[in-house]
Structure formats: C-alpha cells, structure tokens
C-alpha cells in the first residue's frame, strides 16, 4: 500500500527471505498459516443476509439485499446475482472519491468470475415466475479496513453472508384472467435459504 | 451530475419485496413506544473509539439498531491543487452503506448524503474552530428567508466568537472525517455527529469540546427522544398542527448549540423564539415554553445524556493507547539503577 513499506534494506530483505526458508514469518506465523479469522452473521437487520469478517486487520462487511425483478430474456428461469465492492474512505484515505475504484472493480470482477460457473450457486432456485419475476440478490461488500489479503477475506465474507440470507416465501396465485399475483408470506420465519455448499473461496499466495 | 460508471444507467428494474407483503401496523397505543421506552428515554448507546487501526482516530457508535462508523485521517498536507491557506481545514464525507436502509441506496454520494455531510461538518466546526459565530441553522419547511437572515444576524451578534484558533495550529493542512452509516434505524444524523466527534477526539485533534448529537421527533404534542426508524417514517400526527424532526448538536461542557436542524412543520417556531432560545443558551437559562423550544430543550437533555458515555469511551481508548504506568515498576527500575551504582 504505502510506498515507504516497499523500501527495505538488504539486511531486512535477507531476514525475511531466511525466515521464509525456515517456515517462519515476521509475525510468527508459518508460511501456510492464516491470520486469526472472526466471522459474524446477521449483523445488519435491514438486509436479507449479512456478515462481518475480520482477518487480521482486514475488516469486511457484506450485506445481501434481495429484491424482485425481471430475469434476463436469455435465461428466463434463473435469478440474478449482482456484486458491488465499495472500498470506503474509512479503510484508507487513498480510497476517497474514485481512489478505491480500481481495486473495487478488481475484487468485484473476481467475485463475478467465481460465481459465473453454474455449479457454484443454483440460480434457478431464485426464479419466482419463469420469464416474469425473479429474485435479484445485490451483494454489497463494504471494506471497512484494508489490512491485506482482501480477496480471500471478501470471498469468505460473501459466502458467510449468502449462507445467512433468508428469502421470504412467495406465493404465486393466478386469478380468473390468468394474471399472476405475488403475495409474500406474513410469517418472518417462513423463509427459504440458499445452498452455498459449492461456493468457492479464494486463496491468495505470495511467492517470496 | 456524474453517474455511476460501474452500472448500466437506467430505471431501477427491481423492487423491494416489502411492497408485496402486508405493512406492519404502525399505529401504537398512546403513551408507549414500540420498544417500550418512555417518550424521553434514549435507546441503549454503545460507543467505542479506536476501531480502525490505520486511521489517526476512529469511533463506532450504536444507538439501538443504528450503527455508524467514523474514521479521522490527518492533520495532513492539503493536496497541491488547493489554494494556499494559513489555517487548517476540516473535511467531512458521509456515506450511507448501500444496504443500510430499507430501500437499497446507490453507490454514488447522493444529494441527501452531501447535505448530511455538510450538517455534520458544520456541527463539528465550532468545536474545532469557530467560524463567524459557529452556528448552523437549517429549516426545510415553514420558514421564510427574511426570518433566516434575521436569525443569522442576531446570532453573529449574540454568540461568542472564538475566531479560528485551533485550526490555526495546523497551517496548510487538513483533517478528514469519513463517516459510514452501516445501518440506519433512526437518528442517523445525531449518531453521525457524536461518532465523528469521538473520532476527532480519539485522533487527538484539539477541540474546545466534544460535540454530542440528539434528535427529537414531534408527533402532535408528544416528543419522542432518539426516534427509531419506524417512528421517524411514521405518518402519525401528520394531520395535526405540530410534527417534525429536531436535531441538535451540543457542546455539552460549554452548553452551546453547534447545530440545529429543523425538518417538518412546527408552526410555533418563529424566528424570534429561536433567537431568544439561542441567546438564552449562550447567556443563561430563561427559555420560553413553546413547542419548538421545548423540543430543542428535550434534544439538549438527550445530548447531555450521551456526554458521560462519550467521556467514558474516550477515557477507555486513551487508557488502551497509553498503558498506565505501574508504580511498582518505576520503583524496581530505580532500585535497579541504585544497585548498579
């Protein structure tokens, strides 16, 4: 991130390289150790599902908002997933205005790529009326603090948020003229959950 | 207005499922509130300073279900494109997270967010530096321009003017306050003011006082302190004479109002009353018992209620930063030195 961190003396560089050779990093971890991960779900009540994840100093908040919309004409029996990553100015003053845009696009494209495979998430489960109405899941990722390994943290947080997502049960009734009407269940516990078993996680490695 | 370059522009093609469900009953029995509070009770407050490790100072506040996080960066150099200035600058940027409200918000800062940012900035400025009387007054309805001009003129005369003292300590530099509303369940503006002030204090920015914010919703003759989201949006009392929102930013130990935002229809809020209210606050305590005045008074009571929590939180965060020196440790180190000599 900061340019001053990139400047290392030869001795410091050697210290890190030798440490890695002995399977030890400067914070005491072995080469293949993760930092401490904390995950919390259902943290924002205005959402359908949410999760907050802390990986070391990286802090991510993910909110999933389910809305109803029209499916793509090419895929009438599938719902939609939309990703958006917001590198807020809270995380680093460099992200102010459009500063975080490039990183945000990179992360959201990575998410789109891992969810583009059909086996990842069953999008047909998000269909309400084929070619008429479907669930649109807006997955909004808010980077509260950026302390490295953003991709892994975001993918983990998104999976947790999708796991906690509850879609209200929808009853579709057809009236006399064949017009279909949508009614939402009144019972807040009458909900449908998503199957996130196959949602992949990103693992980032750095070669020293 | 710049659009969101990351999305295809066009009308929103999806809507919230809440439209298809039954609306929960909003009407409540008179005398109680949905969460069982009395009219002049605050919700439980949680305030924690020092949450963002990279920031100079930061704070996180929960007012019931309303959650706000603020990060303060600086003082740092003003970007070169800005013009030269001998005094420091305070910048404030507020953003509602896209999932924070019941309807999904857009990613670009919209007009409401810009407006709220400005209110928070102007609420904080009197604490950090006082600019021309250091008072902000915004009315959205029911007041004419002439009244406003009158108020401003009276204020400049009546409010103590400190001048740009504290920001003078940081020439050519700026302090940035970034606020994100993570969840909005009413009183988001008040929470943002308190949170930003706690963040500034945590960052060690010199201030006369830490600003606390509080809101009151007026429903007819009822005054609901620290309104929740459903109380804020309820239509109750719309047909009656008085309804509206009052938000006050207070410098609690100086007992001065740094921001006063009125929104709605409060017919008794005349310019004369407000001016007398403000001068009364600055000089001493004779207030007229009118609706608006009463609402502002209730707000001030709420602000004073938050102040001990804010103080406690700042003491805790300072303790964490500067670990208390254990007297026994000092003695052993002195003994050790003596032993050596």
TrEMBL record, chain A:
Locations listed in the record: Cytoplasm; Nucleus, Nucleolus
Keywords: Cytoplasm, Exosome
Record gene name: EXOSC7
One CC-aspect GO term: nuclear exosome (RNase complex)
Record carries keyword Cytoplasm: yes
Lineage: Eukaryota, Metazoa, Chordata, Cephalochordata, Leptocardii
Xref: InterPro entries: ExoRNase_PH_dom1, Exosome_comp_Rrp42_subfam, PNPase/RNase_PH_dom_sf, Ribosomal_Su5_D2-typ_SF
Record domain Exoribonuclease phosphorolytic: where: 34-168
GO BP term (any one): U1 snRNA 3'-end processing
UniProt record similarity statement: Belongs to the RNase PH family.
Entry protein name: Ribosomal RNA-processing protein 42
Record carries keyword Cytoplasm: yes
Organism encoding this protein: Branchiostoma lanceolatum
GO MF assignments: mRNA 3'-UTR AU-rich region binding
Signal peptide extent: none
From TrEMBL, chain B:
Family annotation (Pfam families): RNase_PH
Gene3D superfamilies, A to Z: GHMP Kinase, N-terminal domain (3.30.230.70)
Residue numbers spanned by region Disordered: 1-38
Domain Exoribonuclease phosphorolytic: 42-205
Cellular compartments annotated: Cytoplasm; Nucleus
Example GO BP: rRNA processing
CC annotations in GO: cytoplasmic exosome (RNase complex); nuclear exosome (RNase complex); nucleolus
Superkingdom per UniProt: Eukaryota
Molecular function GO labels: RNA binding
Primary site of residence: cytoplasm
Similarity section: Belongs to the RNase PH family.
Protein name: EXOSC6 protein
Organism: Branchiostoma lanceolatum
Gene: EXOSC6
